[in-house]
Write a structure and sequence with these properties.
single chain; mainly beta; SH3 type barrels; 28% strand; globular
Length: 94
């Protein structure tokens, strides 16, 4: 479980994709049946204030560019988030 927690610790961190150079915040981490571990990176908004599409990346492609999450991450061990009863949180302003 130590490795799972390490990957979940990416949530909320700013990252850069080593291949494309895309920068953003990790908003989700996925463990799939075929052994892939991927993260959704949210690059934020463009110069006109429109949302830029989120992208999935293998975590091996991502480099963290910050050590502090942009917002507090949910507690997935105890409480309503752990029970699957918590809805979406307010998104931070970037």
């Amino acid at each position: 479980m130590e490795n799972v927690e390490k990957h979940l610790d990416l949530l909320g961190l700013k990252v850069v994709d080593r291949v494309t150079g895309l920068k953003g915040v990790v908003t989700s981490v996925s463990f799939d049946l075929y052994g892939c571990i991927q993260a959704i990176v949210d690059p934020g908004i463009d110069k006109e204030g429109k949302n830029i599409d989120n992208r999935w990346f293998d975590i091996a492609r991502l480099k963290t560019i910050g050590s502090k999450p942009v917002m507090e991450t949910p507690n997935f061990d105890f409480g309503i988030a752990a029970e699957g009863k918590k809805g979406p949180a307010e998104k931070p302003v970037q």
